[in-house]
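User: Can you recover a sequence for this backbone? Please restate the input before giving your answer.

Assistant: Of course. Working from this structure:
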C-alpha cells in the first residue's frame, strides 16, 4: 500500500510539472479510458440483467410451451378414460367406483408431482 501511495503521489507531482497541453492530452486519454470502462460495465450489466430475466421466465414457466401441451394431452387422456369408463359395459356401481378410484389416483399423482417440483424449486432458491 505504501508503494502505491508513493507511485500515485509521484505521478501527481509529475503531471503538475507538465505543460498545459500535456495535461490536456493526459486528461483526454484518462477520460477516454473511463468512458470505455463505463460502456463495458453497462454492457456487462445489461447481459446479466437479460440472463436473470430469462431465468425468471423459465422458473415462472412463461416460455415453456411444451409443459402446457403436455398438460393438455394428459387432461385429454384423463377425459377420454373417464368417458370410456362411463360408457363401458360394466354395471353403474362398478363403473362409478373405478372412475372415483382413477380420479383419486390421478389427483394423488398430480399432487405428488407438483409437491416434488415445488420442493425442488424451493431447494434451488435457497
Amino acid at each position: 500500500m505504501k508503494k502505491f501511495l508513493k507511485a500515485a503521489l509521484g505521478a501527481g507531482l509529475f503531471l503538475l510539472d507538465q505543460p498545459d497541453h500535456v495535461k490536456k492530452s493526459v486528461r483526454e486519454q484518462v477520460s477516454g479510458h473511463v468512458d470505455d470502462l463505463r460502456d463495458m460495465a453497462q454492457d456487462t450489466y445489461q447481459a446479466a440483467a437479460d440472463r436473470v430475466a430469462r431465468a425468471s421466465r423459465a422458473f415462472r414457466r412463461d416460455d415453456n410451451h411444451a409443459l402446457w401441451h403436455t398438460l393438455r394431452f394428459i387432461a385429454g387422456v384423463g377425459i377420454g378414460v373417464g368417458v370410456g369408463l362411463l360408457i363401458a359395459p360394466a354395471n353403474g356401481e362398478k363403473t362409478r367406483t373405478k372412475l372415483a378410484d382413477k380420479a383419486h389416483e390421478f389427483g394423488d399423482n398430480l399432487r405428488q408431482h407438483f409437491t416434488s417440483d415445488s420442493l425442488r424449486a424451493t431447494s434451488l432458491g435457497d
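That completes the design. The chain has two domains: 1-63, 65-126.
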